[in-house]
Amino acid sequence: VSEISGGLARLPNEITVDYVDEFVKDSLATGLIFVAEGDGRMLGEIHAYPYGQWRLKHVLSHLTIAVHPEAQGKGVGRMLFDALLGDVRANRPDITRVELITQESNVRGQRLYESVGFRREGKLEQGIRNQQSGLLENDIPMGWLRSRDTTGTR
Ligand SMILES: CC(C)(COP(=O)(O)OP(=O)(O)OC[C@H]1O[C@@H](n2cnc3c(N)ncnc32)[C@H](O)[C@@H]1OP(=O)(O)O)[C@@H](O)C(=O)NCCC(=O)NCCS
């Protein structure tokens, strides 16, 4: 996904076994992680976990989603978000905010995030370098709040 899309904040060589081990461990310990499978293959993954501090424990952060390039545009991303937010709604009353950051050019991502209840919360100007062009672009922080959640799982 990182090689092809540029939607992830990491370059392919930065997606190491150590990085994956770390986020799987943290997500299983205090956060959430879901994998979509089809025909015995992994089609996509979403995970998120809070920061360690007591004052930030209500915030599910470090959110990352990746759908296999051949499986994109077929509803897998939406299914993964439905699973994550459904679990937050049903089983994690301690979580009242879910947050993510997406680069401004990731329009497809933002459309999906807004449709499942996230709202844009300003912009981090020149916060990330575009993988393809090498130019700086804005990062967009987005948040989902339990207090304004009326949608339920689609
Ligand atoms: C962003 C990403 C997770 C979306 O997952 P996906 O499985 O492709 O998305 P879905 O098929 O579930 O589509 C969900 C919504 O995304 C939008 N979308 C999907 N494909 C699209 C396309 N080709 N063009 C425009 N919008 C599209 C639509 O709003 C769609 O809503 P709909 O179900 O009402 O049609 C996926 O494309 C991906 O992994 N991209 C690369 C990595 C990345 O950007 N990660 C996020 C970093 S913040």
List the helices and strands and how they pair.
Elements: H1 2-5, H2 17-30, E1 32-38, E2 41-49, E3 59-67, H3 76-91, E4 97-103, H4 107-115, E5 119-120, E6 124-129, E7 136-145
Parallel strand pairs: 3-4
Antiparallel strand pairs: 1-2, 2-3, 4-7, 5-7, 6-7
The chain binds coenzyme A (COA).
Structure, explained:
The protein has 154 residues and is α+β, with helices and mostly antiparallel strands. Helices cover 28% and strands 32% of the residues. The protein has helices spanning 2-5, 17-30, 76-91, 107-115; strands at 32-38, 41-49, 59-67, 97-103, 119-120, 124-129, 136-145. Strands 1, 2, 3, 4, 5, 6 and 7 form a seven-stranded mixed beta sheet that branches. The radius of gyration is 15 Å and the shape is globular. Bound molecules: coenzyme A.
